[in-house]
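In response to reviewer comment 3 from the previous cycle, which asked for concrete evidence that the modeling workflow produces usable outputs, we include below a single protein chain processed end to end. The sequence was submitted unchanged, and the resulting structure tokens are shown without manual editing.
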Amino acid sequence: MSTTHPTSTPHPVRPELRFIGGGARSGKSNAAVQQALAFDTPRVFIATAQALDDEMRTRIALHQQEREEGFDTLEAPHDLAEALRQSQHAKVVIIDCLTLWLSNLLFAGHSDTDIDKATNAWLQEAENHPGTVIVVANEVGLGIVPGDALSRRFRDLAGRLNQRVAARADHVEVRFFGLSMTLKTPDTGTGA
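The workflow returned the following structure tokens.
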């Protein structure tokens, strides 16, 4: 008789696009890492964060410690499509996090059209990837309406981006308080 560890994820029959969303410090990144550890190496972690200040350098270092060994890291603050092309050898890829990637593009002066094209490009690469791709993103639309135009633009773009990824993903889960709720599975297309 075999037993399955409750945090392990069975290997999919075919590669999947998985999407994990939720609030800040809800356990999204840890869930992605735990799912990825169920796969054989090579594993790739695509990091979108940029170490622009001491606080962000500290956050990045903590994420690296939590990730343990067994991941090759690609830094891709802007070009996720290229990073996915570079990770074709991987059995599993984590993109963490999509929300920072969007911020990076906004602060680099990209238009909504540019962001839409970049999203199409990396989603196409993710869907065609020979391994499973796990995408992590924040849910930023549950609070009050932001008071300035840039913040409202960011919130709206993030909401639309998350909807697009969720629509194309095979598996979608949301994290709250360190707990997970499955919204969509490969078998049913919806939550179990």
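Strands lie at 17-22, 43-47, 72-75, 92-96, 132-138, 171-176, 179-184. We consider this sufficient to address the reviewer's concern, and the full set will be provided in the supplementary archive.
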